[in-house]
Amino acid sequence: MSHIRTRTAVSPLHRSASVPPCPSVDGLVQILQPENPVYCLRPAAVTEAARDFQAAFPGDVLYAVKCNAEPTILRAIAAGGITHFDCASDAEVRLLRSMFAELHFMHPVKSRSAIRAAWHDFGVRDFVLDTADELWKILAETGEGARGLVVRLALPKGSAAYDLSGKFGAEPAVAAELLRAARPHAARLGISFHVGSQCMDPAAWTRAMKMAADVIIMSGVAVDIVDVGGGFPVLYPGSQPPPLAAFMAAIREGAAALPRGIKLWAEPGRALVASGASVVVQVQQRRGNALYVNDGVYGALSDAGAPGFRFPHRLIRAGSSRPGAAPQELVLFGPTCDSADVMKGPWTLPGDIGEGDWIEIGQLGAYGTALRTAFNGFDRALVTEVADAPLLVSPQNVTNAPRAA
User: Fold this and answer.
1) What distance in Å separates the CA atoms of residue 314 and residue 303, rounded to the nearest whole number?
2) Average pLDDT value over all residues in the chain
3) What pLDDT is attached to residue 4?
4) pLDDT grade, residue 159 (50/70/90)?
5) Euclidean distance between CA atoms 288 and 256, whole angstroms
6) How many whole angstroms separate alpha carbon 246 and alpha carbon 249?
7) 218 near 179, Cβ under 8 Å?
8) Omega into 346 within 30° of 0, i.e. cis?
9) Quick one: average pLDDT of 127-139?
10) Tens digits of per-residue pLDDT, 112-126?
11) What local confidence, expressed as pLDDT, does residue 8 receive?
12) Is 275 within 8 Å of 235 (Cβ atoms)?
């Protein structure tokens, strides 16, 4: 099993040589009997999702690197035809520059040293801002040259699972002033927004694009780009989003309100990579309806904690097969000493699950590895590629039936 590598939360990411994937998660578990969490990457699923999104979106697609920065995933994104990357930090710029060329610094608040390095050392030419202070900072640190400047527009609070309206963005009148101030210094000028993560309402994009159109008109200057952000949702248990085509139709409707000749950008993350990874955790103890497992909210399962996301999951039994018990709704506790390390689910699993059994949890390609920490020292995990199909929904039969590749 030389293609399996150990990953700790605080280790730098290294590009690894191409290795053959494991045929299946079940086979991997039976061979390894792992006592640490195992991240099972499915780059083929990511490539397919990237290809589908790129084909559907009427403009340039920038992958939001924060969602999952594993090199295997980044290469899978590029294999799907997406070669622009939305970076939010100096570290992301450095990582991506070693692999790809088309980088965009899309965080509205950046340190001066990060701006300088991005511009002078790594050739980044596009920068987002939402204040006059940030505009002057960018201009001071980049000096002369052709640059792209993108003004982030604040949106009203919406209904997305993660509302992003409170931290960044300029109010419409301020955004119009920033567009006017940036125009003389911009080789290309844009306006961006973000409707919130896991947004189930396609019309949110139409409304935001109408706001952007109003701001452009208010500014009185030519704008080259409208960046519709990310937030495109994926399937989770209890959360059935509309099809991708509905979001693209809403974006095309919104584009009709824009001045002619404007180019569209998008910054998807979750929609491209959610299906690209699962994590296998092991049960270390059972107490009533609670399972104590070896990963939790400080690891891959942050979204299963306070945010309350539910994920598809299935049992992988330890040892010899035994008759499946009736399903039971259970709670998971992570390995740390923090009592907030709880994932209420509910997690529906056979009622006889116990110590030594494993649970595969799917749809964790988005933010699973990205949010992992080293809290309490529980930072060790295995990372490998698998060739079987992504776990997108919890099996109706909760016994340990292997899935077809």
Assistant:
1) 18
2) 89
3) 58
4) low
5) 57
6) 5
7) no
8) yes
9) 97
10) 999 999 999 999 999
11) 45
12) no
Average pLDDT value for residue range 254-258: 95
Q: Kindly list the structural domains of the chain, giving each domain's residue range(s) and its CATH number in brackets, ordered by start.
A: 5-11+18-42+277-385 (2.40.37.10), 43-272 (3.20.20.10)
Residues 6 or more apart whose Cβ sits within 8 Å of residue 376: 298, 335, 336, 337, 338
Q: CA neighbours within 13 Å on the CB side: how many for 398?
A: 18
Q: Which residue in the block uniquely carries the two structure tokens 């002078």?
A: 120
Whether residue 80 contacts residue 49, with contact meaning beta carbons closer than 8 Å, is answered with: yes
pLDDT at 22: 83
- Which of these, 326, 315, 328, lies nearest to 357 by C-alpha position? 315
Residue carrying the six token digits 């920033």: 178
What span, in angstroms and rounded, lies between the C-alpha atoms of 144 and 133?
18
Indicate the burial class of 159 (C-beta count within 10 angstroms; 0-12, 13-18, 19 or more).
Answer: exposed
Judged against a pLDDT cut of 50, whether residue 11 lies above it is answered with no
Contact 196, 153 (CB under 8 A): no
Residue 161 gets the label, from left (phi > 0), alpha (psi -120 to 50) or beta, of alpha
CA distances from 70 to 30, 75, 94, 267, 315 (A): 25, 9, 14, 17, 26
Which pair of tokens denotes residue 59? 């403009």
Scanning the structure block, which residue is given the tokens 């204040």?
131
- Structure tokens that stand for 145 in this block: 């040259």
Q: How confident is the model at residue 12 (pLDDT cuts 50, 70, 90)?
A: very low
> Which tokens is 328 given?
């039971």
Residue reference for tokens 């909760």: 398
pTM of the model: 0.89
Using CA atoms, how far residue 377 sits from 43, 341, 355, in Å, is 28, 14, 22
